[in-house]
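F.,

This is the one I mentioned.
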């Protein structure tokens, strides 16, 4: 079979000047389409995850503080938040079936133990993410990790640190390649037509911090805007969470919000919203609704 490729028949993306750039964009597009198709084809059940995130705003801010102490970048920081959240989901579901169903009087001990070990679990998530991301940080050395934990007010042995990392890795089924909200933010910025992408990325980073910290409040506000009530059933929450507030749509809404703060040009905002709407397979109205909910919570926090 002849594998020679006639480069003249390749159609470049708009604005491209070389085939290397074409190959990079094509790879990114194919990755995004595969992920989107996988998510759209997934049938979530009530046992898949717990509603909302399993972690509070204080925990998210603590993770951000640990990330700063460890000298990791924003991408690793967000990966750690989502990995810790996923770990807790899995951890509590496992403990529920092993302990609560059979020995429910011991449940409070399980909760107390998890709370006491939470800092160590967070550090384990940070270790795993930095290794996966191939970042060269102080987390490569166990003594450095022990020192950081000491600075956070916790004294753990080297053995405890090693065991915790293995426990977290095992609980999440050894899966470290889940994309974050911020990854989709970076993806959309890569493709959208915007003059100053450096400023846009900087604003989106600040907004992504805010969304991770105030996720629950934004979600509640969005739910109220969408259905006009603050009380809803468990199944209604589940359906709404995946249908309206997934990672892709959240990333798109962050970009729309950032564009609004940076540029009051209604025509430009409308064009970006229309593009993101097609990418997310969600109506422009729904994306604006998520953006509006985010903006409203920002205004509440400012006053």
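My design for it:
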């Amino acid at each position: 079979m002849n594998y020679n490729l006639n480069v003249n028949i390749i159609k470049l993306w708009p604005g491209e000047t070389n085939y290397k750039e074409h190959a990079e964009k094509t790879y990114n597009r194919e990755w995004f389409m595969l992920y989107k198709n996988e998510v759209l084809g997934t049938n979530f059940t009530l046992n898949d995850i717990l509603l909302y995130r399993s972690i509070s705003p204080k925990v998210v801010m603590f993770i951000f503080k640990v990330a700063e102490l460890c000298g990791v970048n924003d991408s690793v920081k967000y990966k750690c938040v989502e990995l810790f959240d996923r770990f807790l989901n899995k951890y509590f579901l496992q403990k529920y079936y092993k302990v609560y169903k059979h020995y429910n009087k011991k449940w409070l001990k399980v909760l107390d133990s998890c709370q006491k070990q939470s800092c160590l679990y967070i550090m384990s998530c940070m270790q795993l993410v930095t290794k996966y991301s191939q970042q060269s940080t102080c987390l490569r050395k166990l003594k450095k990790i022990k020192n950081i934990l000491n600075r956070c007010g916790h004294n753990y042995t080297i053995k405890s640190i090693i065991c915790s990392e293995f426990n977290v890795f095992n609980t999440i089924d050894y899966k470290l390649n889940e994309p974050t909200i911020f990854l989709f933010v970076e993806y959309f910025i890569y493709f959208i037509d915007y003059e100053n992408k450096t400023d846009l990325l900087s604003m989106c980073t600040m907004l992504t911090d805010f969304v991770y910290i105030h996720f629950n409040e934004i979600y509640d506000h969005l739910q109220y805007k969408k259905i006009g009530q603050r009380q809803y059933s468990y199944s209604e929450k589940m359906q709404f969470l995946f249908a309206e507030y997934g990672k892709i749509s959240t990333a798109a809404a962050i970009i729309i919000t950032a564009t609004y703060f940076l540029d009051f040009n209604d025509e430009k905002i409308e064009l970006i919203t229309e593009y993101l709407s097609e990418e997310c397979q969600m109506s422009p109205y729904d994306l604006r609704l998520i953006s509006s909910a985010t903006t409203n919570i920002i205004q509440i926090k400012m006053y």
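The two ends are 68 Å apart (CA to CA).

Talk soon.
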